[in-house]
């Protein structure tokens, strides 16, 4: 699946805004503090870009059922790609696919095969979900036909172990794929929190800011 792209434009925009806010702070030091006081920067993300949060339903990201809630009966030890679906401020369902880094991968393994460092509190009946975007340079990860117990990033052969917290087991990725805690709900899959860490391209601090900003959407 190649239609999704890295979110570099958004990240660049965010960095630009951060620079702009820093500049505003410097200007404030020159005497405009009062004028700027109480002025809140506009929201930078939309409901379609908010990261997965507690209560989101996972929906198929591709195939004939695209946009429909995932059925746990369809899941396997191969990748199922998903988007989180939340709600806008009016309660209308929104699939969060405007941010490519929101792409998720979901598996169902025999429960006994799932081991640390997977967060077992975020797993139910062998169903486990992770970010679907490589932590090296932001490509989509995929199944690995030659070593099916692993998943592979096609860009530079980064390899992850989805039964062990998607830890890195080969190639250049600097860290594991963040895990999305889930529970099973009415035959589908629901997020019980946010990703365990920043998706590709964000620092911990940017990630925390983004989650805070998401609460305002
Ligand atoms: S982008 Fe995945 S290994 Fe380089």
UniProtKB/TrEMBL annotation:
Keyword Transmembrane: yes
Membrane-traversing stretches: 16-39
GO MF, any single term: metal ion binding
Cofactor needs: [2Fe-2S] cluster
GO CC annotation, single: membrane
Pfam families: Rieske
Keywords on record: 2Fe-2S, Disulfide bond, Iron, Iron-sulfur, Membrane, Metal-binding, Transmembrane, Transmembrane helix
Domain of life: Bacteria
InterPro entries (UniProt xref): Rieske_2Fe-2S (IPR017941), Rieske_2Fe-2S_sf (IPR036922), Rieske_Fe-S_prot (IPR014349), Rieske_Fe-S_prot_C (IPR005805), TAT_signal (IPR006311)
Domain Rieske: from-to ranges: 91-191
PANTHER family hit by this protein: CYTOCHROME B-C1 COMPLEX SUBUNIT RIESKE, MITOCHONDRIAL (PTHR10134)
Protein name: Ubiquinol-cytochrome c reductase iron-sulfur subunit
Organism: Deinococcus psychrotolerans
């Amino acid at each position: 699946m190649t239609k999704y792209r890295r979110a570099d434009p958004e990240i660049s925009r965010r960095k630009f805004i951060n620079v702009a806010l820093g500049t505003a702070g410097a200007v404030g030091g020159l005497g405009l503090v009062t004028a700027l006081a109480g002025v809140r920067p506009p929201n930078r993300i939309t409901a379609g870009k908010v990261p997965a949060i507690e209560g989101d339903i996972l929906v198929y990201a591709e195939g004939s059922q695209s946009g429909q809630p995932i059925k746990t009966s369809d899941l396997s030890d191969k990748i199922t790609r998903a988007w989180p679906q939340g709600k806008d401020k009016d309660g209308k369902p929104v699939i969060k696919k405007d941010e490519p880094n929101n792409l998720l991968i979901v598996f169902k393994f025999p429960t006994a095969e799932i081991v640390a460092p997977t967060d077992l509190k975020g797993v139910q009946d062998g169903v486990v979900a992770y970010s679907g975007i490589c932590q090296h340079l932001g490509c989509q990860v995929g199944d690995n036909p030659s070593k099916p117990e692993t998943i592979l990033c096609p860009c530079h052969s980064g390899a992850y172990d989805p039964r062990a917290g998607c830890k890195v087991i080969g190639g250049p990725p600097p860290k594991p794929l963040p895990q999305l805690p889930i529970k099973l709900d009415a035959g589908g899959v629901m997020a019980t929190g946010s990703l365990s860490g920043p998706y590709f391209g964000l620092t911990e601090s940017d990630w925390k800011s983004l989650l805070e900003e998401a609460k305002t959407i």
